[in-house]
Amino acid sequence: MNEVVATNFTKRGWKEDPMFPPGFFYPQKDGLPHLHLTSVIDPKSGKHVMSYLHYKDKNNQVHIIFNDGKWNNDIVNTIPEQNLRDEVNFAKEYK
Predict the structure, then answer these.
(1) In this structure, what DSSP letter does residue 22 have?
(2) CB-CB contact of 94 with 50 (8 Å)
(3) CA-to-CA dists, residue 20 to 16, 29, 42, angstroms
(4) How far apart are CA 25 and CA 46, in angstroms?
(5) What is the pLDDT of residue 94?
(6) Distances (CA, A) of 18 to 32, 42, 47
(7) Which of 21, 75, 86, 88 has a CA 20 to 30 Å removed from the CA of 32?
(8) d(CA 3, CA 32)
(9) Which of helix, strand or coil describes residue 34?
(10) Contact (CB, 8 A) for 94 and 2
(11) Are 79 and 56 in contact (CB under 8 A)?
């Protein structure tokens, strides 16, 4: 599990979420579709780790990709936007 470090995400075009740091949106918070990732401090390591990732589609429907330590590849495979699938695969390194 890799530590969620802001620069690793922002250099790829993710936008930091000012409400839930460290959290990120790709490509932006306002606008659809987008990804939203949040992290928490792991009590064992003291590092920020991914806790949640969702895809919000063009119809404003939320699809949870990662939550409670579980990854849902079925959702990833249905995301029509290749650039968003690429970023989900990047984020997978942080689960």
Answers:
(1) S
(2) yes
(3) 9, 12, 16
(4) 23
(5) 86
(6) 19, 20, 19
(7) 21
(8) 27
(9) strand
(10) yes
(11) no
